[in-house]
Specification:
Elements (H helix, E strand, L loop, with lengths): L2 E2 L10 E6 L22 H15 L6 E5 L6 E3 L4 E5 L2 E4 L5 E6 L3 E7 L4 E7 L1 H5 L2 H10 L9 E4 L9 E2 L1 H4 L7 E4 L2 E4 L1 H12 L5 E3 L14 H4 L6 E7 L4
């Protein structure tokens, strides 16, 4: 099983984080090591896959919160595991509760405040990015006393600007600095938009930015843009450790 573990969290003993990949449990095409119930994969296999991932990370599978992602800007405060309804970002200060975002090209962003002991998980595709879902998550955790300069951030693998083509109607929603014209299409740097949101919000130093492209790395990552309906999904998950 190949799980990416953000090194930026290594120096903190009370946080767990990881991103699943296509590789695990010997799963094969078309879905590979898939974490989603909504792509046509066998539900029992998906449950096994999720349990393997969470147990490998040291998180009780029953305590992991999942959201129905709708590419909007709602932020949910989570107090228990299971399906928590429609949103695209979750936050919690409850130890033992995992926050999992589903990805297959969209940008996953994991947040951790070591002082206030709060975590967040954000799913930011182009729609969520345009709606500033990340900024709204930062503003939400400020209500709990979290200061931007204290927040540790991991921006995970996603589709890169080199291959992410969008039409004019999408491109017009973003500043030209994040765009490069390619014929009648545009290449959009969704990760770059989110990075600038962090910097402008005051998160200056504590950012790990993955350079891995979900579309380009076919043997490693699920990609909806590349594989369409045959694409599985990965999970990016973060949790505060539960101590006895």
């Amino acid at each position: 099983m190949l799980i990416l573990k953000p090194h930026i969290f290594n120096r903190y003993s009370d946080v767990i984080a990881g991103v699943s990949t296509k590789t695990g449990a010997g799963r094969r095409a078309p879905y590979f090591f898939n974490m989603s119930f909504s792509v046509g994969d066998n539900e029992n296999i998906v449950k096994e896959n999720r349990n393997l991932l969470f147990e490998n990370l040291g998180i009780n599978p029953a305590n992991v919160a999942h959201q129905k992602q709708v590419h909007e800007d709602k932020v949910s405060f989570v107090t228990q595991g299971g399906l928590i309804g429609e949103s695209d970002a979750m936050i919690t200060d409850k130890p033992g509760i995992g926050l999992a975002v589903s990805i297959a090209d969209c940008v996953p962003i994991l947040l951790y405040d070591p002082l206030k002991k709060m975590i967040g998980a954000v799913h930011s595709g182009w729609r969520g990015t345009e709606k500033k879902i990340l900024l709204k998550t930062l503003n939400e955790i400020k209500k709990y006393g979290c200061l931007p300069e204290n927040i540790i951030v991991y921006i995970g693998p996603s589709i890169s600007k080199n291959v992410y083509e969008v039409g004019k109607e999408v491109a017009e929603m973003f500043d030209k600095k994040y765009l490069e014209q390619k014929g009648e299409k545009y290449l959009l740097d969704v990760t770059g938009v989110n990075l600038d949101i962090l910097l402008k919000a005051g998160v200056k130093r504590n950012i790990q930015l993955s350079s891995l492209c979900t579309y380009a790395m076919k043997d490693v990552f699920h990609s909806y843009r590349r594989d369409g309906n045959n694409s599985g999904r990965s999970l990016a998950v973060i949790a505060l450790k539960e101590y006895e």
